[in-house]
């Protein structure tokens, strides 16, 4: 269609895009999909300031999206496709198969340690099955094995940023101060948080 793409992978998990780049090479003529690497502030800012970007597709925070759009000399002509601070929900109804649902929720919430834009962030459960769902979910989460990604049967791996475990602990502390309660045994939770801290 005459359009070309400049694709900047995220700073974390870049190697995961290798198969995608191979598929791009096989599917498109040379020069249609172009990949750049590096610090977004240094690389993306000059591209936006050039005014040659017609469409911005971005998954990240609204704060960064606002910065990028303002860098464009014609921000009102720039088309934007934005996925910002997604609060992806799971809705659990009374007639669900709890065993299947719990597995799907764990996969949806904790794949890649939940460090992906499509991870489940909030779960709505009907009252009738709330207690049963919570019990099954906490039991299955406690069974998850922490370790390095290349170790067999590992489910929880180190988080990609040094301060991430402290951030997550802060979220837990904030929730409990506001009336939330832990359903996962505190020791199991501590082991997972400490594993993520100590193995970076």
What does this structure look like?
By secondary structure, the protein is of the alpha/beta class. The protein folds into 2 domains: 80 residues, no CATH class; 110 residues, Aldehyde Dehydrogenase, Chain A, domain 2 (3-Layer(aba) Sandwich), CATH 3.40.309. 44% of the residues lie in helices and 13% in strands. It contains 7 helices and 6 strands. The strands form 3 sheets. The chain has a two-stranded parallel sheet. A two-stranded parallel ribbon has the order 3-4. Strand 5, helix 4 and strand 6 form a beta-alpha-beta unit. The longest helix is centred in the C-terminal third of the chain and has 17 residues. The C terminus is likely disordered.
Compile the SSE list and pairings.
Layout: E1 5-7, H1 18-27, E2 33-35, H2 40-49, E3 55-60, H3 62-71, E4 79-84, E5 89-92, H4 98-110, E6 122-125, H5 127-143, H6 164-177, H7 186-198
Parallel strand pairs: 1-2, 3-4, 5-6
Provide the structure class.
Answer: alpha/beta
CATH-defined fold name of the largest domain: Aldehyde Dehydrogenase, Chain A, domain 2
CATH architecture of the largest domain: 3-Layer(aba) Sandwich
Give the ordered list of helices and strands: EHEHEHEEHEHHH
Portion in beta strands: 5-15%
How many helices in DSSP terms? 7
The end-to-end span amounts to 44 Å
Mean pLDDT: 86
> Main beta sheet, described?
2 strands, parallel
Domain count: 2
Question: How many E strands?
Answer: 6
User: Helical proportion?
Assistant: 40-55%
By CATH, the superfamily of the largest domain comes out as Aldehyde Dehydrogenase, Chain A, domain 2
Q: If strands are numbered along the chain, what order do they take across the biggest sheet? A: 1-2
